[in-house]
Design a protein that fits this description.
With 130 residues, the chain is an all-alpha fold. The chain is built from six helices and no strands. Keywords: Membrane, Transmembrane, Transmembrane helix.
Length: 130
């Protein structure tokens, strides 16, 4: 799997397309076990510079910190609420058919549930003597 460098990752984080050679990494990035944390990290890329600018504005420190906190809360709220739609848009922008990310994450969850159920049944049968 070809992983993008720092500059390409920043471009990707702000919504840019990556070359075809990163296709596998994009799919991994949006469907892996930690896809939600990755999304929040990408969302932070656009928010951090704005927060730094607001901290440098003239005025009382408490007011500047309140502005940064309020902006961060609103930004992360909307980023979290529209997380799946944003991921699907990111995937389609990079050449994947609509619904790819949701389908892959659902299949992974079903496989994990089946594995957990099998472990539970094995432990249950061992403890009941069946």
């Amino acid at each position: 799997m070809n992983r993008p460098g720092v500059f390409r990752w920043f471009w990707y984080a702000v919504g840019g397309r990556l070359p075809e050679s990163y296709r596998d990494w994009i799919l991994h990035d949006t469907t892996s076990k930690h896809w939600k944390a990755r999304h929040v990290l990408r969302s932070s890329v656009g928010l951090i510079p704005l927060c730094l600018v607001w901290l440098l504005l003239p005025g009382p420190l408490a007011l500047r910190l309140a502005i940064v906190l309020m902006a961060a809360l609103v930004a992360y709220f909307y980023s979290s609420v529209y997380m799946e739609e944003s991921i699907e848009h990111r995937l389609s922008r990079n050449g994947f058919p609509p619904g790819t990310g949701k389908r892959i994450r659902r299949e992974a969850a079903e496989a994990a549930d089946a594995e957990a159920k099998a472990r539970y049944i094995a432990i249950y049968r061992q403890n009941t003597g069946e």
